[in-house]
Prior knowledge:
single chain, alpha+beta, 8-stranded antiparallel sheet, 5-stranded antiparallel sheet, 15 helices
Amino acid sequence: MTKMFSGLCFLWSSVLMAxxxxxxxxxxxxxxxxxxxxxRIKREPYRRWYEKIKATTLEAEExxxxxxxxxxxxxxSKQAQLYILSGKEEWAEKCWNTLAHVINDPxxxxxxxxxxxxxxxxxxxxxxxxxxxxxxxxxAQRRLVNDKLFQVMLxxxxxxxxxxxxxxxxxxxxxxxxxxxxxALVYDDYEKKYEKSPALPFIWDxxxxxxxxxxxxxxxGGWSAENLSYHGYNWSFLGPALIANRNSFSSPHFELQNxxxxxxxxxxxxxxxSSSIPHPRGKGTQPDFSDxxxxxxxxxxxIGLGLYPKAQLPALxxxxxxxxxxxxxxxxxGYLFYSICWYxxxxxxxxxxxxxxxxxVDERYGTSVWRNRFRDDEDVIVAFxxxxxxxxxxxxxxxxxxxxxxxxxxWVVGGGRTSQIAGQTNxxxxxxxxxERFEQGIPASTDFVSxxxxxxxxxxxxxxxxxxxxxxxxxxxxxxxxxxALVEVRDRSKNGKYWRLNTPEFNExxxxxxxxxxxxxxxxxxxxxxxxxxxxxxxxxxxxxYGGNTVRHNRGVGFGDRYWAYNKAIDIPCDGDIDVRxxxxxxxxxxxx
Length: 593
């Protein structure tokens, strides 16, 4: 107890010292790092990344929509980054001019009960710009932005706004407190009216709230309660804020594994789940569980390189290289800057399979992810979800569902960002209608088990979001060789009538007597069959809108150079029980006929 108290006193005094000096930057990066970062961009790969940041910033300047509350914030942040990278004051001047649209915004930034995510994003951007451009701005500019930072940090910390999600698990709170912490850490007490900086009580409070949030948002095994894409969004704020927290303390005692032990395995689960299949904004595709979306990217690895335990860094370096496609990314939100800061010069990248990351299980949440290898976009990934506890926020209806990626293609998906059930891959008591929801609330799954028998992985659980009575599903997975994989799905229920698989609309479907075949655009094949005696009628194919009737943030399934708005839902009629065999194979050629 004495050691803990002494440690807290040391951290508190370190914060005090940080708040009494106006040296900047001292948040996400420190003054000592600026010269090192500017030297980095003189050589590859950093020079290429710097040129990408510059090119995308110039493009954003030309196309800036000042009526959009996000665009000026993102652009100002990128201009501030370029000031740090180049040392040229013209970028700090541009940043000031762009930032004026944010700090004078009456709808969000200057309304203390405005929409939470928008205002928190603006706060994060303003804090970064103030910290980075401090040396180039006038005293009047600094004081103006500094006062705004305190006001918005104070109200964001105390109130998330009209559209707030007050569940502690919600990623909204990570965005909220990550932004507020960064702002509080870079705030300067110019007037010194008080013995201690007025930001200090809020720093202390926010640190505790973030710690509580992570403990609820991430399960002990490392799986996000709101699933993969929401975890990435959450940590695009939390990760940099925690790095700023560490920097402000100037202390080696801040370690993620001590502050937030649940978070340490999150990038393991994210890595196991992520394929380098391209989409319109880069590379990275993952299972779309809950009301999630399947697009991911390199950014989480880049942030992780600056925060996660040293033992994981070689694998995260490998994942960063695996997912970063400098030509494809738009870098709208300025994530590439983090790669320049934290990508390690020293040490080789290490294949995550060497760390045992080919398999991930979180038993408390109820998820299993298996992959055959880490190599390229033809890696095969199979995932099974059986949530043991439904948390407030994002909790799509997907008990006992599974997803499959592999051989350069997306094979099995869910419904997207919607609570509508027709887009789910599952067993139904009737053929779901367009717009239908399971109206009795979303229950948790039970009896989750995961393991390995011989050369086969397995997982099973009970429960249904579809009204299927006594539904139990077992999934077995075998990676047979470099060109094939086998997934077997065994369903038992009292009233299951339609076994449904949803696949993106770009896959061709051929109905067979005892199943169907999917053909990917690249010629890869998935063959889905069941015993003829278990099939209780004609197999049918229908069209389902991905994301249901969701409009905001619903682009569809990103694959290749476009987004695809619809699924093809294939139904196999059954009578309670069905055993389905899924054979995945890489075709000999892209056009086997």
